Amino acid sequence: MSNSKAVIREEVHAFKRQRILEEARILFYERGYTGTTLDAVAERLDMTKQFVYSYYKTKGEILVDICASGARHSLEVVEQALALNASPTNKLKQFAREYSRVICEQQLNVTIYLREEKNLSDQEAETVHELRRAFDKRLSALLNEGMRAGEFNIPDIRLTTLAIGGMIGWATFWYRPQGRLSMPALMDGMMELVLRTVGADKGRDTSSGSEFPSARP
Amino acid sequence: MSNSKAVIREEVHAFKRQRILEEARILFYERGYTGTTLDAVAERLDMTKQFVYSYYKTKGEILVDICASGARHSLEVVEQALALNASPTNKLKQFAREYSRVICEQQLNVTIYLREEKNLSDQEAETVHELRRAFDKRLSALLNEGMRAGEFNIPDIRLTTLAIGGMIGWATFWYRPQGRLSMPALMDGMMELVLRTVGADKGRDTSSGSEFPSARP
Question: What's the whole-model pTM score?
């Protein structure tokens, strides 16, 4: 088998796995995890149950992939922001915007995770918890960076980390693709609120001196 | 039957209903709604299934009570804050503190709601949605009050309402009664973050003039 054939074969394999995941996600969301059989997943794909089994050995394996997805993408976003060659304020801006996007894009995955976490084995649940803890740690590191640079003013870094995560993460429960706010507007709005939370909006407000128009002689 | 006997009888009825709810809540949380039978609830109470039936006709009735509880308490908190004879800033302070307390106290109810909402009938789900919409509307009204009074500076009231709700509501997923922060510290910390979100912390910071120590002659 030539090399390019191997590559194509791998791509087809990944594509089929992805298709199974997509249909399972919809069923888990609509009927719940325990209410969904691999037969039903196969039916939606117009394939045999055997086809599904050749990509996922158990229904549990699909659930792990779905549950880890939101946490994995969230961690990527904060890692990418930290790696920027930019000020902490600009890193946080990118983080807030991209994390908002990820939460909206991963809405079904995150919803299923929050609903069905109890169906993961202890070890599987721990894998996702580790990703979530890493996310919190890296976001705290970014807030610390801004404190050291004198750009942020945060009384409690740990609480502020959780508050920022929640402010955006809660969109899981209210975001509607056809809602009032466009995705860019939502990303900008959240960015502004996150900057306020860390006290990074002060500099701009006070440096203009507009609040003391006649303070100087 | 004397009047006081009727009162006692009512109290006993409410108490027994409450006990059933408490045990069902633990089972719904640990085993999931579909994994819990009324038999199991009766067993935990050391009573017969018939006993449970005389207070709740179906398992679904218990779920509705649990799911509506968090939303009902949250709405109460914002109504109480709005009814205060106080400035919008002080109303928001009370709201942020008390809503933080409610989310922690209602943690199991809210978790079960978010997990098991799909097991409610359309009408039952709508009852809870109405409470949640009323909460958002009343919180938006409070933010509007602060804008009109010139105490808040909010570019998008609707988004900020959802952000504040999420910042605190997310504690459902991380709050631990034996965690790092005491309840009063958590309430104070969240209050501070909420004030920043609406731009109500500015006044205090700039009026002290500490950022312009030598600006006046």
Answer: 0.88
CB B57 within 8 A of CB B70: no
* Chain A nearest-CA residue for B200: A196
A56-70 pLDDT, tens digit each: 989 999 999 999 999
Which of A29, A103, A162 to substitute to test the interface with B, most B CBs within 10 Å?
A162
Which chain A residues are Cβ-neighbours of B186 within 8 angstroms?
159
Task: Give the span between the Cα atoms of A49 and A38, in whole angstroms.
Answer: 6
Whether the predicted interface score ipTM is above 0.90: no
Residue A124 has pLDDT above 60, yes or no: yes
Cα gap B183→B172, rounded to integer Å: 14
Q: What is the DSSP string of B135-179?
A: HHHHHHHHHHHHHHTT----S-HHHHHHHHHHHHHTHHHH--TTS
Each residue of B180-200: pLDDT tens digit?
999 999 999 999 999 999 999
Structure token digits, residue A16: 């089929």
On whether the CB atoms of residues B131 and A128 are closer than 8 A, the answer is no
Structural domains in chain A plus CATH codes: 1-57 (1.10.10.60), 60-200 (1.10.357.10)
Residue of chain A nearest B34, judged by CA positions: A34
Q: Which residues of chain B are within 8 Å of residue A112 when distances are taken between CB atoms?
A: none
